[in-house]
């Protein structure tokens, strides 16, 4: 059976966790996240809520991985980016 190496990444402000995992080929994004055990370290990650990506492009949890892929787990937004920009622009006018 062929094995592939991928990275699973989760970032918080001031902290980034990068975990190398070895998986059988074919494996999915979800397989890599579970194998990395990152869910044990960060219990706030909710696989039904947090979005995922591969090298910065949106990916579904059932997408098949390729050797060397970087699986990213994204945090939810704190606020609406457009509203934050409006508030910043309004503050800068004053």
Keywords:
alpha+beta, Ubiquitin-like (UB roll), 94 residues, 3 helices, five-stranded mixed sheet
Describe the structure.
The protein has one domain: Beta-grasp domain (Ubiquitin-like (UB roll)). The chain is α+β, with helices and mostly antiparallel strands. The model has no long low-confidence stretch (mean pLDDT 90). It has a five-stranded mixed β-sheet with strand order 2-1-5-3-4, with helices on one face. It starts with a strand and ends with a helix. The protein has helices at residues 29-36, 38-41, 81-93, and strands spanning 3-12, 15-24, 52-54, 57-59, 70-73.
In short:
This protein is α+β, with helices and mostly antiparallel strands. The protein contains three helices and five strands.
Number of folding domains? Answer: 1
CATH fold-level assignment = Ubiquitin-like (UB roll)
Low-confidence stretches: none
Content of β-strand: 25-35%
Average of per-residue pLDDT values: 90
Rg from Cα: 17 Å
What's the CATH class label?
Alpha Beta
Number of helices: 3
The chain-level structural class is alpha+beta
Number of strands: 5
The CATH superfamily bears the name Beta-grasp domain
Largest sheet: 5 strands, mixed
Strand order of the biggest β-sheet = 2-1-5-3-4
The SSE order reads EEHHEEEH
What is the CA–CA distance across the termini? 64 Å
In CATH, the architecture is Roll
């Amino acid at each position: 059976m062929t094995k592939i190496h991928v990275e699973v990444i989760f970032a918080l402000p001031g902290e980034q966790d990068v975990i190398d995992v070895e998986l059988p080929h074919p494996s999915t994004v979800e397989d890599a996240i579970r194998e990395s055990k990152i869910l044990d370290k960060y219990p706030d990650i909710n696989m039904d809520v947090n979005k995922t990506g591969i090298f910065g492009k949106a990916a579904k949890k059932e997408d098949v991985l390729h050797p060397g892929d970087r699986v990213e787990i994204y945090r939810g937004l704190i606020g609406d980016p457009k509203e934050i920009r409006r508030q910043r622009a309004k503050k800068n006018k004053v």
